[in-house]
Design a protein that fits this description.
- The N terminus is likely disordered.
- The chain contains 13 helices and 15 strands.
- The radius of gyration is 21 Å and the shape is globular.
- Helix 3 packs across helix 5, helix 10 runs parallel beside helix 13 and helix 12 crosses helix 13.
- The chain has one domain: TIM Barrel.
Length: 371
């Protein structure tokens, strides 16, 4: 057993001395691997990771097979079908209907165990999320007649917000995050293990659970626990992913904080007052700090909304000019379902942008295959 696992167990196990007299077994489930985990020899990375927001009751869409087909395959202007994104990140940051938040900095009350569990249940619900990817990839394999690598799924981990006193029952006790970091770690460990359990029950053939994502975009409130979360995930050969915003606390020392992959947000798309030079600056920062990068756009790229498609084109230009497309993994923030809407749009300019973007993804895929 690796020394880092001893450290994780020591911190969790210390709770027995300080908070309980029971002899409950607190060893991680990772000590007994699922069959598909036992076959994994190393951490799996993702070339093109698309963000799929899901969980909040305010979301007006469902990640079913019909929606996800716009993200799994792409038909070019000559009628040829291609695989598109190889990775899917399911995440939620808040629920404006139920007034819940999954990280510090958003409106609402901190999400509790029942809210965390509901996310996993939704992501693995039949006909939704992971299951829908599995189904559509199986169908697409017959059409493409090309080798289909397993599509990767990354699951977000809510921030265990330090002010929570009644998270919910885990192993027979209510967790109180105000007591110590040990309580927060136990919640995170339970969540990871529940996701693993749900994935195992799915018996997936076209999808693999490749990693987890820390939903808090700054290290400020969780710096003291991130390395231990990373140790637990890495011992199971899962990646620990992060997408910090521009100049976020911790982005320069993301490796020391504990992440395997960090995608830098340029935060250029949304504010017209931010000049193109931000993209140059962000690309240089990503190169300097050995980070990957995020492409950002949303429904405002559609003609007739705010006509901001040109700003998406700016990302693609900058990423080509700085050779980001040739050397870095990419994540794609796309608001709600903008890629799907561009595909279905009857507007000529929308169609042009859609094909330009998808070709960018395909070009990036080719570069990554060479690396």
């Amino acid at each position: 057993m690796k020394m880092k696992k001893y450290l994780f167990l020591a911190l969790i196990g210390g709770l027995l001395l300080s908070c309980s007299s029971t002899k409950e077994d607190l060893s991680p489930k990772g000590e007994v691997l699922y069959k598909w985990e036992a076959k994994r020899k190393s951490i799996i990375d993702t070339d093109d990771l698309v963000l799929c927001y899901s969980g909040g009751a305010h979301r007006p869409y469902v990640w079913d097979k019909e929606l996800l087909q716009s993200y799994i395959t792409y038909v070019d202007q000559e009628g040829q079908e291609h695989w598109l994104f190889d990775g899917f990140l399911f995440l939620e940051i808040f629920d404006t209907v139920n007034k819940k938040k999954y990280a510090t900095g958003y409106a609402g009350e901190p999400a509790l165990k029942e809210d965390w569990k509901a996310l996993i249940d939704l992501y693995f619900k039949k006909g939704h999320g992971v299951c829908a990817i599995e189904e559509y990839v199986e169908e697409a394999k017959e059409r493409l007649k090309a080798p289909a690598k397993k599509h990767k799924v990354v699951i977000s981990i809510p921030e265990p917000i330090a002010s929570v006193t009644n998270f919910g029952d885990v192993n027979g006790e209510n967790l109180d995050f105000t007591i110590s970091d040990k309580e927060r770690l136990k919640a995170v460990k339970w969540y990871i293990d529940y996701a693993r359990e749900c994935f195992d029950k799915g018996d997936f053939k076209n999808v693999e659970l490749s990693g987890f994502y820390w939903v808090a975009e700054t290290a400020t409130h969780t710096r003291t626990i991130l390395n231990l979360v990373s140790d637990y995930l890495n011992d199971l050969n899962y990646s620990f992913n992060w997408i910090p915003y521009w100049n976020s606390d911790g982005y320069k020392d993301w490796k020391q904080v504990g992440f395997n992959y960090a995608y830098l947000q340029p935060n250029y798309y949304f504010n017209d007052k931010i000049e193109y030079s931000r993209l140059d600056e962000a690309c240089k920062a990503a190169i300097e700090y050995d980070m990957d990068m995020e492409v950002e756009f949303d429904e405002s790229a559609l003609v007739g909304t705010q006509d901001r498609g040109y700003r998406l084109q700016d990302y693609m230009k900058a990423f080509r000019d700085h050779k980001i497309i040739e050397t870095k993994r990419l994540a794609y923030y796309q608001g709600g379902t903008i890629i799907h809407k561009l595909r279905l749009s009857d507007n000529e300019a929308d169609q042009k942008l859609y094909h330009e973007f998808c070709q960018f993804v395909l070009d990036h895929k080719k570069f990554m295959e060479k690396n």
